[in-house]
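The pair is quoted verbatim below.
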Amino acid sequence: MSDLAAAVTPVLAHSILPSVIARGATGIRVVAAGDDGVITLEADGSPGAVLPVLGRIEAQIRAAVPGVTAVRLSAAGPGSPPEAGDLADAAQRILDAEVNPAIAAHRGHAAAVSADGGWIRIRLDGGCQGCSLAEVTVRQGIEPLLRARPSGLTGVADVTGHAAGTDPFFSPEKR
């Protein structure tokens, strides 16, 4: 392990791990540290939970370890990601067959918007847009289901404009 990686590891364990666990990841670790100060992290469990807070994680690491110039999130597991179109199509078929019938009871709908580098970007509509439990639905329902099926999936990123939701099933006040 390089000196830079060794300096970042305790920051991950003490400052960052509790917040990523709260978001749905089960762990986070340094998988590479370049001579240029670029640190590559890998998240276990729900890597899509880490993606929205990656900027804050980078700021925290860079403040604690001055030699770090950038932080990247790596795809977990061996092999290269499948073609984006194939991955998005496979994800949409799973959403249509297994997720959308369940969330329709809450006036919700999930769509695979795009795929890139093993990441699927989904948008939640209807009662799911702005719902206070949308993140739970994504991290504990949709993401594990999608990660179990299409090979090469790294994680799921929710790109929903939740603030624009006009009729969420569970409004933030109900939480």
Notes: The first helix runs from residue 3 to 23. The chain has two domains: 3-73, 84-174.
